[in-house]
Amino acid sequence: NVMITGETGTGKELFARAIHENSPRAGENFIVIDCAALTENLVESTLFGHEKGAFTSADKKQTGLIRMAHRGTLFLDEVGELPLSVQGAFLRVLQEHRFRPLGGSREVYSDFRLVAATHRNLDDLVLAGRFRSDLLFRLRSTTIDLPPLRKRKEDIKELTVHYMTRLCDRYGMGTKGLSPEFIEALLAYPWPGNVRELIHALENALSTAQNEPTLFPVHLPKKIRVRLTRSSISNNTRARPCGETKGSARPFPTLKSLVEKTEQQYFQSLVSFAGGDIRQICAISGLSRAVVYARLKKYNITRRFDCQAPQPS
């Protein structure tokens, strides 16, 4: 048995699939059970299956997911949400690999490998009386902790290329180029939603880019670009002394000069993360086009990534 722990969205199911695909069971079923979606009244039927007539709505025989995982891998996602009422029965399945479907008179055998995942602290659930300690002991034969994406930035580019290829194939699109600025933006963002948020951001970028061959920061979701811009400004101004000590040769700066310097840094960062798109710059800053153009001219800032009209040959 393998237990995978980590924050929500860190790619636990992807890792579980990798375990399955690199095992002798790779040619068999990989069955996913989302424990958080199991309802109390149907959990046993879902896991163990049932015979026809086992209960009021059982108008036909149904094979349970545990049996469907025979010779393959059973993945219990969010195992901490497994109802306490069924944990004892599931513990026996782990020990004996045998169970009885609802309404059945004979036991069924299932040879499966178990991989479980959770974002919860199961020890706390045991202390709270919501998870069986003996079941937890059985689940923890091998434990793998997946760190959040913000702590493994070296994986971001590889993950981006992997998912971009899959997404382009899924939507029948040609392969997109990834600009250095796009990769830099991905590396600078903290990804609170982890791999799941990265995938959604890439889907959004593809949708925004349409037929454009290369992705830039402007193609990322607005909330990501806004956060990156604010972070850039904060980093540039944090802990910066605004003047020298008394007697210094350099005078104390005026408020106007300090405000202008901060404003210039803001627009430089904003233009970079918006890819030079004036509509995005206006949307993020909340300023009109006239005001934005005036600021860019004042600080001699060029919209480097804006699309230029083709020049006559």
Protein traits:
313 residues, alpha/beta, Rossmann fold, Helicase, Ruva Protein, domain 3, two-stranded antiparallel ribbon, 44% helix, elongated, disordered C terminus
3D structure, described in words:
With 313 residues, the protein is of the alpha/beta class. It folds into three domains: 2-146, P-loop containing nucleotide triphosphate hydrolases (Rossmann fold); 150-220, Helicase, Ruva Protein, domain 3 (Orthogonal Bundle), CATH 1.10.8.60; 257-299. Helices cover 44% and strands 12% of the residues. It has helices spanning 12-21, 43-48, 65-68, 84-96, 122-127, 133-139, 156-170, 180-188, 194-209, 222-237, 255-273, 278-285, 289-298, and strands at residues 2-5, 30-34, 49-50, 62-63, 73-77, 98-99, 108-109, 113-118, 142-145, 177-178, 214-215. It has a five-stranded parallel sheet with strand order 2-5-8-1-9. The termini are far apart.
Order of adjacent strands in the largest pleated sheet: 2-5-8-1-9
Say how many strands there are. 11
**Kindly state the mean pLDDT as a whole number?**
86
* CATH architectural designation of the largest domain: 3-Layer(aba) Sandwich
How much of the polypeptide forms β-strand, as a percent range?
Answer: 5-15%
Number of helices: 13
Helix content: 40-55%
CATH topology of the largest domain: Rossmann fold
* Biggest sheet statistics: 5 strands, parallel
Question: In CATH, what is the homologous superfamily of the largest domain?
Answer: P-loop containing nucleotide triphosphate hydrolases
Radius of gyration: 28 Å
The number of domains is 3
CATH C-level class of the largest domain:
Alpha Beta
Helix/strand structural class: alpha/beta
Indicate the low-confidence ranges by residue numbers.
243-249, 305-313
H/E series, N to C?
EHEHEEHEHEEEHHEHEHHEHHHH
- Which shape, going by the Cα principal axes? elongated
**Straight-line N-to-C gap:** 67 Å
